[in-house]
Amino acid sequence: MRERNVTIITSTMNLDGPFNSFIASLISIHVSVSQRLPFFENTLDIVHSMHILSNWIPDAMLEFTLYDIYRVLRPGGLFWLDHFFCLGSQLNNTYSPMLDRIGFKKLRWNSGRKLDRGVHKNEWYFSALLEKPTN
User: Fold this and answer.
1) Strand, coil or helix: what is 82?
2) What 3-state DSSP class applies to 40?
3) Burial of 5 (0-12, 13-18, 19+ CB in 10 A)
4) Could you tell me which residues come within 8 angstroms of residue 102 by beta carbon, excluding any fewer than 6 positions away?
5) Bridge partners, 131 (sequence order)
6) How far apart are CA 59 and CA 33, in angstroms?
7) Is 0.85 topped by the overall pTM?
8) Nearest in space to 134 (alpha carbons), one of 94, 107, 110
């Protein structure tokens, strides 16, 4: 993406280590969700998180992390939140309002039941494509 002057950050789970891995270009950096991202404000075009951010993170820490993602995105930048796990009651009562409070514009929002442990658990995944507004 260098030829288009686009900067992308993505995350992956490092199962053999204590931290999540954020990959920027070819440099692997390790930060926990309780740390700020090591980027200046308004510098990234895309941030991608898959299976990392979920309801296992306390709400206050999750909101801190989401605000930090918002901070590092350029206006018009995209946050792709992929496979966020939560309970059905948390989806509309906690996480959707949290993303609205931060200021993200919802471009795409897909949710579906997680059925591997049974319907009675009321577990859900959602994926969202969110934009930092340009104004």
Assistant:
1) strand
2) coil
3) exposed
4) 63, 66, 67, 70
5) 78, 105
6) 12
7) no
8) 107
